[in-house]
DNA sequence: GAATAGATTGCTTGTACCTAGCAAGGTTAG
DNA sequence: CTAACCTTGCTAGGTACAAGCAATCTATTC
């Protein structure tokens, strides 16, 4: 298609090829993402009985990321602060998370995963990883590595867009470089 | 896990290396999947205002998969039939889906996407793909293709496990052969 | 330098909505 | 009659938005 360089439209031909390839890729990725989303929902539903569900993400952030304030958790998980507040209360009531006064700011508190919380998280993660390992077992090491790398990059890019949309939220690892969004 | 793991060889290292590599990959993938899940939820939340939310999946199935009964939709989406029933009612009330008596079984009805439903779905998909295209624009064609391919394979494997887990009486056949379908 | 009014930040609570499953019903088919 | 298909009532969970309280910061004034 892009070979015939007709004098009248030679400029547009390569452009169109590149763009249509991009659109095709976007459509394909969209298909896979929707499908993946459905599968994830079903998986969550199935794994709901053996413990809480949504607050696991917050617990995980506390275990692997260290003590944090609720605001940081909310920004990290793309959740409203009020939602995090409730989830944290539930976690505290179940003894998985403890509140501790922030020595630097007595308005809020620092959240810590208790030993029980760490154990619960490890238990959950072990089971999850076992299932994933069974899934990945027949894969080639190359494919495994590629999937993780590319999904990681997709996450990075999506998070950047999300944060850009929501404004500057707390962020720990990824240096999001967007201009100041004052006003 | 407890496979052969033959000791005594001059180098048992490769076995161990293989297993630990698999576990490491599973852990890495788990991390990325959890993160991706949160990002997807946030994205859905943000896109909630411009139309329905969850019933889009059912509408999509009807558009790309043709007329179906509610039971088939439920099996395909891993949802309870009652949930599908309600969502279908909503879709019908909004004029996106029409009921039509099944000529072969008057107990239920066949569901069809109306023209408005098709238009709504196309509109949604166009917008979704535009966002994804913007996201993928800086990617190399190789990375794009790889991500789609690997995510597709992950979906295949997960769907297989899901179906086998739900038992053979469930919904075999519906979600298996959707080669060219784009949802 | 101290006091303090106003703005900002951190979190909680009230409310409403959406999604989902389970259980109990109707209705039709075989 | 029994089984298949669908609907409806109830319940539960997760989430956002708005409103509000408490602690801190900033700036102005004396």
TrEMBL record, chains A, B:
InterPro entries from the UniProt entry: HTH_MarR-typ, MarR/SlyA-like, Tscrpt_reg_MarR-type_CS, WH-like_DNA-bd_sf, WH_DNA-bd_sf
Domain HTH marR-type: 26-156
Membrane-spanning ranges: none
Organism listed in the record: Streptomyces nigrescens
Stretches the record annotates as Disordered: 160-183
Name this polypeptide is given: HTH marR-type domain-containing protein
The keyword Transcription is annotated on this UniProt entry: yes
Keywords: DNA-binding, Transcription, Transcription regulation
Domain of life: Bacteria
A Pfam family the protein falls into: MarR
